[in-house]
Structure formats: C-alpha cells, structure tokens
C-alpha cells in the first residue's frame, strides 16, 4: 500500500533531497552571460535520453519540449495541421508538396533548404528501426527548388499530421554523420542545444538568429530526475523552475498554486484476450466490464487526479464525446470461479495498484484472479504473445500523428502491431479501415468514433480512466506550456521573473 507523501518517514524525504543536491549547481537563477538580462530556466525531467537524443527515437520529444528542433508542420488543439517550417502544402494523389518558409537558418548558420529537409526525411524513412510515426509507411522525399515533395506508396490522408511528429524534426546536414544523429547545434528552434552530458543533463542557449519571435529566456538547464519524490522536492525547495510528470502521490502535498493538471490523450485500459482463455467468451468479457468500478480506482489510486473513461478517447480529444452514441453490448455471464491472470508493469507507479484494485473487483464478481507484475521490458513480449487473460496498460491514444485512427488500428485490427486483445473481427476491421482512409476533418472524426464503438461493443478492451499531465511551475515562471500531447514545455514565450 502506498503511503501519502505527508506520511512518509523523514528519512524518505531526506533521501529525495540528497538526490537533488547539486542538481542545478552553477545554474541557480543564473542570468544571461550575454548581458541581455533574464534568468535561465531550470527544468527537472522524468526520463533520461535512451538514444543519445536522436530525433529518430522517443528522445525526439525532449528536443521538441525544449523548442530546439522543429518540424515542417505543427498541430493545433484539434489535431489539425498548421504551418511551421512549411508555410503551405498541396496534395496530388500519393504526393504532397510543401513550400518552405523563407529566412530560416539552422543553429550552425546554414540555411534551411529543400535539400536539407529531404535529407532529414530520407534519413528517417530509411532508418532501422524506423521512427514509430512511419511504422508501415513507405515514404520518399525529393527537393524541388524551395519545395519538397513527399510521396507515399499508397494514398495517405495523414501525411501532414505525420510530418508534425517530433521524430521527423528537420536538422542541419552536420547532424547526420555515420549511423548516429547528433542534434547539438543542428536545430532551427528559438533555443540551441549546446551541451549534452549523457543521461545526466543538457544545456540550451537562446538562438538569436531564430526566424520567429526571439526567446524571452536566455537559456535552459535540464536535469534528469527519474525519482518522482525527488522531482517534487526540486519544485518545493526552489531548485527547479519547471518539473514534469509529478506523481499523483506527490501532487497533493505541493502548493496547489504551483501544480497544473491537463487532460492528456492517454487512457488506462484493461485489454481482454479475446482469442483464448476465459475472455474468449463474450459473456465473460461483459461480466468483467460490469465488475470494473473505474470511479473507485480514480478516487483511490489516482486520488481524484484522473477522469473516469466514457470511451477509449478522453477529454484531451473534446470532439469525441459529442459524436458518441450508445453502444449495444453483450449480456454478462456468470464467472463461476473462472481463473484469469492479469499482467501489468512497474514502470508507471500506479499500474500495480490499479491491477490490485481490479483483482479485488473481479474476485468480488466471481472470478479467481492472479497477478503478474514486472518491468515493462520484461513483460511486453508475453503480453503481445497473448500469455495473459488480461493486461492493464496506460496507452497513448493519438500516438505521434495527433490522430487516434492509428492507435485504434494498431491495437484492435486483426493485423494490428499492438493487438493485446488478439481481436480478429471483420466488422471491427471494416470500421477501422474506414477511419484510416477517410480524409482529415469532421467525417474522419465521425468514422473514428464509429470504430471506437465497434471495439467497445466486443468488450475487447475496458477503458477505465484518462490520465492527466501533472506539471509543476515555480511561482516566477511565466508562459510555460501545458501540452496534453507533451510536445511543448519551454517555448519562446517562457521565462522566469
């Protein structure tokens, strides 16, 4: 059982403070060395880089959150594509042509050209493994004057949204040497990445040649603090200005004026194995659905800092709720002592507690329940192989394109690459394919919600709750981004008083 932070022994809080000792040594509210004034922004982040800050990996989201690497396209709040390094684009069948913004330079002083853009996109498209956003997508990029033409093997209405992914950031030619990609001094954003200290820290300085509004802060100093208690302590002690991913257990004991919660496109879901075992029976899947009390999990495990799920898509996609219609589901059967095994992982601190709560709820309904809890790296292959009757997962629902159709297809199509439910249903496949093929806009959103309904009608997955980003901003921080997609954190408008 987790103890609230206010009940933790003093030694635990002291240990957190020790973890932070020297975290920002030499940068405490440091002013700009150039003499232009302002304070550097000290950021405590959850995870250290896993791939040397390569934009072709999940590390790309760090580069995006620091406003150092940029993409051709950005997404607005609705997930629609908007200009960034590209000012406009047109489509012709399988090809999309993007016109580049004038006056953009990389941090090494070289100009943004169509050749540089094509080079970045080609390196991403030919990487092994490919960036996740290009999984299953064959893409080529060709320079043509001040424009770049991107062509896919089959018609793809999501190309602009795909190009908004931080994993397709555009970097200077110098970043691509050998097999690695080094983003230091190679971006186009308002901050230049100047120093990387492995998995310990990073530093960025304002880039005065930025094509847009100049950054208000002189720079950013980043420390990686994996321990949640230590990150919260950094905010409490004043050692950090912005702290990402504050654990639920710590949020309650911080000054609430310093904590911001933002609904994020991430759903905590119970996936049921429809291929074998007890949950091959639709009536037993329905029994499990009726047994799950998501409200008590939100209250008990998340201390009210989450939203009870109405569907797979949550409040971070506000259009989904208005398009839903009632879903006709199977009638619940009698578990009669059926034994099921639920798997989950320890990497997110709430997951084991959620699984334990589900165990109690399902046992109360008549199931016999075993738990298998491991680190994610040690359990994912078993989950994908269908070795569990059910699996609890915190799942991003818009992945990298800002569009939920890709997530739904990946998780619930017969040939989906992340089909934990092992669902194979022709009607579901038909609905998923329609959603994937419909042009971007209201018609696509309607098709997405219809595909969601098809999945829910089979009880292949039981959405329980939608998580929130819990971010800490010190009292002097102005205009820190609170982004549900976790693509932005420090922007050109962010500064410390």
From TrEMBL:
Ranges for domain Solute-binding protein family: 82-414
Gene3D superfamilies on file: Dipeptide-binding Protein, Domain 3, Periplasmic binding protein-like II
Cellular component annotations (GO), alphabetically ordered: ATP-binding cassette (ABC) transporter complex; periplasmic space
Domain of life: Bacteria
UniProt xrefs under Pfam families: SBP_bac_5
GO BP: peptide transport
GO MF terms held by the record: peptide transmembrane transporter activity
UniProt-listed InterPro entries: Peptide/Ni-bd, SBP_5, SBP_5_dom
PROSITE patterns: PROKAR_LIPOPROTEIN (PS51257)
Protein name: ABC transporter substrate-binding protein
Species of provenance: Streptomyces tuirus
